[in-house]
């Protein structure tokens, strides 16, 4: 199968390129936004690649013509997430690509889903975190396609060597700023990157993969304490070296955010917005974000001074009370994660400790 890969220079995409080119896989056609994006995968002899505006359905269709399927692993801001999903579906239609495997996120249910949440739980697009809302809107844009087979996968915390969950950890530990919210006793709904790629490969070929979205994860589910323990210990520290901090307060969506989302997704806006340049839209968006941004530190960043200050997203993750079920992926697709969490974390720890020795 000839497979177009969008987002091939991100964390998941780079690992998929490695696996398919080094270990064998489908015939890979990498689509990037510009040649400069290829720096991360330039060490491989790429069999086929193209550069185009992935938000332009016509240009994207030209770049993927002749492919049998597309894997969509693009990352971006909330606006880009929705636009890229719509463009990908339209491009597949125009190019005659039969199947689109879209990487959504378990965050469509929020970072701390209600008990009983599963693949069929109704989604909301009025969550405080715009990323979650964007993934919901992207899924809705892909739903109901009859001419392109759409597969939607919802991974949770995707980790492994080079992942954002570990790269800043050594510096945080050495500076005394590593932390767990409320002891990190909440569930970490995690999936090792190679297991996610296994689910992607099933999504490309399995006849039942188009049967509603699928949550996919590792075979076991750890708490955040358990998740971080092997990596922290491999660096010569212990969980006692991670500060225990209180959760952040729940934010409310700003008036600007609520109204702009409603306007952007109206029928009139979809016709008018393409007439404006991306530079103008980015400038307006930046102004709105600056106007409405709360004065809070991002939980993914390491504060320069004072005690660690988690944002609400990290707080919700660390205190998550729900272990999401992947029964449908197992029963319908035959998904059986090839790497268990202990081995996956050991691999991550070896990589990270090797960098910081």
Automatic annotation (TrEMBL):
InterPro entries: Epimerase_deHydtase (IPR001509), NAD(P)-bd_dom_sf (IPR036291), NAD(P)-dependent_oxidoreduct (IPR051783). Signal peptide: none annotated. It comes from the Bacteria. Residues 5-212 form the NAD-dependent epimerase/dehydratase domain. Pfam families: Epimerase. PANTHER family: NAD(P)-BINDING DOMAIN-CONTAINING PROTEIN-RELATED (PTHR48079:SF6), PROTEIN YEEZ (PTHR48079). This is NAD(P)H-binding protein.
């Amino acid at each position: 199968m000839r497979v177009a890969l969008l987002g091939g220079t991100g964390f998941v995409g780079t690992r998929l390129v490695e696996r398919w080119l080094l270990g064998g896989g489908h015939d890979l056609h990498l689509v990037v936004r510009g040649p400069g994006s290829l720096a991360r995968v330039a060490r491989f002899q790429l069999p086929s690649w193209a550069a185009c505006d992935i938000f332009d359905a016509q240009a994207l269709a030209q770049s993927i013509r002749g492919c049998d399927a597309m894997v969509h692993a693009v990352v971006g801001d909330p606006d880009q997430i929705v636009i890229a999903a719509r463009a990908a579906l339209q491009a597949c239609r125009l190019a005659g690509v039969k199947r689109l495997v879209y990487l959504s996120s378990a965050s469509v249910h929020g970072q701390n889903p209600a008990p009983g949440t599963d693949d069929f739980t109704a989604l909301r697009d009025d969550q405080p975190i715009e990323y979650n809302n964007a993934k919901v809107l992207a899924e809705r844009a892909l739903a109901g396609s009859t001419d392109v087979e759409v597969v939607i996968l919802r991974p949770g915390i995707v980790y492994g060597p080079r992942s954002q969950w570990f790269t800043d950890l050594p510096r945080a530990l050495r500076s005394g700023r590593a932390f767990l919210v409320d002891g990190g006793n909440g569930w970490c709904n995690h999936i090792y990157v190679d297991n996610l790629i296994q689910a992607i490969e099933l999504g490309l070929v399995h006849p039942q993969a188009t049967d509603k979205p699928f949550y996919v994860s590792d075979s076991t589910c750890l708490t955040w304490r358990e998740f971080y323990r092997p990596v922290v210990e491999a660096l010569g520290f212990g969980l006692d070296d991670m500060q225990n901090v209180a959760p952040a307060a729940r934010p409310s969506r700003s008036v600007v955010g609520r109204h702009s989302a409603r306007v952007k997704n109206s029928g009139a806006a979809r016709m008018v917005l393409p007439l404006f340049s991306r530079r103008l839209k980015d400038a307006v968006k930046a102004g709105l974000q600056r106007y409405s941004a709360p004065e809070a530190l991002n939980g993914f960043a390491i504060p320069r001074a004072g005690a660690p200050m988690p944002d609400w997203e990290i707080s919700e993750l660390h205190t998550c009370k729900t272990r999401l079920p992947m029964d449908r992926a197992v029963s319908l697709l035959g998904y059986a994660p090839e790497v268990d969490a202990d081995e996956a974390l050991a691999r991550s720890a070896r990589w990270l400790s090797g960098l910081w020795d």
